[in-house]
UniProtKB/TrEMBL annotation:
Cited PANTHER family: CELL SHAPE-DETERMINING PROTEIN MREB
The protein, known as: Rod shape-determining protein
Domain of life: Bacteria
Main location: cytoplasm
Length: 112
């Protein structure tokens, strides 16, 4: 890894191993897994049936973490898929939401 030493401000190269990265990410990964499980527990039955049939779709940069899909599948018992282009999903979803006209009363009180 290349970066700047925060003590002296000079450029520095440091070698780290995959195990160190995995350990550093472990708590954050489990927060994501727990959030998925909490969301599934709060999902209405009719929607939960679709999720069980079709599986969970991981999107965004976190979906690129090697093994996250297998961990989520193991923890939930539901098949997990990674989007074809996970980094583009947020942008595409935002674009689609901007195409839909929002109710005018949704943002009342924000303008003067």
């Amino acid at each position: 890894i290349k970066g700047r030493n925060l003590v002296d401000g000079l450029p520095k190269n440091v070698t780290i191993h995959a195990d160190e990265v995995r350990e550093a990410l472990a708590d954050s990964v489990m927060i994501v897994v727990d959030a998925i499980k909490d969301t599934l527990e709060k999902t209405p039955p009719e929607l939960a049936a679709d999720i069980i049939d079709r599986g969970i779709m991981l999107t965004g940069g976190g979906a690129l973490l090697r093994g996250l899909d297998k961990l989520v599948a193991q923890e939930t018992g539901i098949p997990v898929h990674v989007a074809e282009r996970p980094l583009d999903c947020v942008v595409e979803g935002t674009g689609k939401s901007l195409e839909v006209e929002l109710p005018k009363n949704r943002y009342r009180g924000r303008r003067k």
